[in-house]
């Protein structure tokens, strides 16, 4: 990575420019930021799929795909992601860097296509193309209904829904089937007009780029300063331990424990918490894997997962239902009595630093990582990967042990295993 530059175009548009000659492709990422809430989550998801089905210039998906192929196989994808209480519509466009091909206008063509997708989608009589709308709506419903097929992922999502019940964060990233079934084509088009006029938009561009030229192109986009939809910060309140059991016809029980912590991304001990959670359940060398699987043969898998924006951590395990009480007891005792060695901390640091550095090898992963680091932070503060690595290296044993003393068990979610 040569260098990075951030620029505030106006109160609705920020530009993140990452200069790198490591890859033969350039990448544009558009992030439309909305607040995660039940009213919008399904609309945002469906809209993200509709925007890449066609435009005024490319009136069918086939025409659009043909154009992408003629541009040296440009890759266009669109989806939504959930970052804390934010729901982000993201559009990515990857294409060859001009120095590697004959078409020296490809960067301009890419910017024009992004402009076309955002501001000139395929609209017929104040609504999206009806056949595409019905197709994407049906596909989205099928996708949401099929999430139960991956019980490991489903159990984590259900624990989040139970732990944050009544709060924005409880919403599943793609929305609820009933809410999506109720979306009309006219309502989706009105929502598009609303978000295109009131959302904050962040655009990341990574490649062998000239900062001044890219900034000039960003300033020409028709995203004008104006009123922005306000976000309402929600603070999670602990109101007593929740215990939720769900019976499903599965052979293996799925246990997830949800803990509240003070360690969100802006906490001075955030990097310390990441190391602590990795040592606890970050792989075959972790404390919980050795305890539950190697010593007691009580789990098929065990993991820890946290959300940097919410200050939480989840412990998940695949177990036999009859071992439920024993596993809970062992996890509780592990957290109370855990001790770590200097060697374990060094191994965790090495693993985490290697993971951070490996992000540099994948453009899409890096711009997503870079965006999450900049989200909700002042542009002036910038981002320095070496500084992040230094913060990991400076963590000591005493700090890690303090993390384990500040985990508050909030929710126990369990899918009861065994043939029913």
Give the helix/strand layout.
Layout (H helix, E strand, L loop, with lengths): L2 E8 L2 E7 L5 E11 L5 H10 L10 H10 L4 E9 L2 E11 L9 H14 L10 H16 L5 H13 L13 H5 L3 H14 L1 E8 L3 H9 L22 E6 L5 E8 L9 H12 L5 H9 L5 E7 L4 E8 L4 H14 L4 H17 L4 H12 L10 H9 L3 H8 L3 E9 L4
Parallel strand pairs: 2-6, 7-11
Antiparallel strand pairs: 1-2, 3-5, 3-6, 4-5, 8-10, 8-11, 9-10
How would you describe the overall organization of this protein?
41% of the residues lie in helices and 22% in strands. A hairpin with a 2-residue loop joins β4 and β5. With 420 residues, the chain is an alpha+beta fold. The strands form two sheets. The chain has a six-stranded mixed sheet with strand order 1-2-6-3-5-4, sandwiched between helices. Strands 7-11-8-10-9 form a five-stranded mixed sheet, sandwiched between helices. It is built from 15 helices and eleven strands. The mean pLDDT is 93. The N and C termini lie far apart (54 Å).
Task: Name the descriptors.
420 residues, alpha+beta, six-stranded mixed sheet, 15 helices, 22% strand, globular
Strand content: 15-25%
**Unreliable runs:** none
Helix proportion of residues, in percent?
A: 40-55%
pLDDT averaged over residues: 93
Task: Write a brief structural summary.
The protein is an alpha+beta fold and 420 residues long. 41% of the residues lie in helices and 22% in strands. The strands form two sheets. Strands 1-2-6-3-5-4 form a six-stranded mixed beta sheet, with helices on both faces. A five-stranded mixed beta sheet has the order 7-11-8-10-9, with helices on both faces.
């Amino acid at each position: 990575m040569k260098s990075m530059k951030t620029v505030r175009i106006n109160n609705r548009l920020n530009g993140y420019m990452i200069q790198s000659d490591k890859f033969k492709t350039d990448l544009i990422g558009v992030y439309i930021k909305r607040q995660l809430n039940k009213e919008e989550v399904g609309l945002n998801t469906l809209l993200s799929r509709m925007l890449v089905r066609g435009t005024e210039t490319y009136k069918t998906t086939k025409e659009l795909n043909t154009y992408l192929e003629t541009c040296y196989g440009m890759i266009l994808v669109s989806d939504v992601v959930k970052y804390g209480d934010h729901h982000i519509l993201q559009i990515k466009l990857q294409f060859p860097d001009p120095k590697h091909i004959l078409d020296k206008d490809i960067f301009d063509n890419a910017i024009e296509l992004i402009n076309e997708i955002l501001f000139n989608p395929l609209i017929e009589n104040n609504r999206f193309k009806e056949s595409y709308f019905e197709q994407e709506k049906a596909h989205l419903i099928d996708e949401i209904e099929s999430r139960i097929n991956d019980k490991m992922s489903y159990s984590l999502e259900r624990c989040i829904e139970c732990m944050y019940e009544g709060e924005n964060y409880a919403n599943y990233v793609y929305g609820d089937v009933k809410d999506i079934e109720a979306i009309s084509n006219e309502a989706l088009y009105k929502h598009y007009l609303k978000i295109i006029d009131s959302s904050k938009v962040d655009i990341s561009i990574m490649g062998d780029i000239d900062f001044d030229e890219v900034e000039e192109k960003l300033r020409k986009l028709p995203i004008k300063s104006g009123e922005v939809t306000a976000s309402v910060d929600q603070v999670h309140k602990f109101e007593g331990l929740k215990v939720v059991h769900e019976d499903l016809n599965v052979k293996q029980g799925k246990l997830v424990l949800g803990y509240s912590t003070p360690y969100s991304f802006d906490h001075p001990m955030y990097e310390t918490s990441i190391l602590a959670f990795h040592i606890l359940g970050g792989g075959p060398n972790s404390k919980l894997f050795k305890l539950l699987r190697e010593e007691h043969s009580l789990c098929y898998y065990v993991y820890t997962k946290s959300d940097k924006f919410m200050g939480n951590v989840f412990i998940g395990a695949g177990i036999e239902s009859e071992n439920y009480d024993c596993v809970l007891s062992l996890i509780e005792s592990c957290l109370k009595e855990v001790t770590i060695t200097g060697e374990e901390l060094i191994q965790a640091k090495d693993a985490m630093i290697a993971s951070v550095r490996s992000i540099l090898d994948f453009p899409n992963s890096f711009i997503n990582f870079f965006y999450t680091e900049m989200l909700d932070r002042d542009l002036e503060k910038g981002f320095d990967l070496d500084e992040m690595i230094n913060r990991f290296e400076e963590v000591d044993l005493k700090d890690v042990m303090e993390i384990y003393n500040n985990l508050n068990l909030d929710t126990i979610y369990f899918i009861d295993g065994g043939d029913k």
